[in-house]
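Quick note —
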Amino acid sequence: MPNNSGGGFGRGGRRGLGGGFARGPGGYCICTKCGIKEPHKIATPCQTQKCQKCGSPMTRG
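Predicted structure written out below.
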């Protein structure tokens, strides 16, 4: 009988498809302070970007 605990990366234990950190090329980065939205730049995490309006860190939205 197979072990179906979901602890591995096989069936049922996968990360990705919305469960991992990478969310793909689309979407927006949102300022944590003023809420301004900017398009996400490919290969640049939102957390490393600063808001052009107020200089606060951005987060993925």
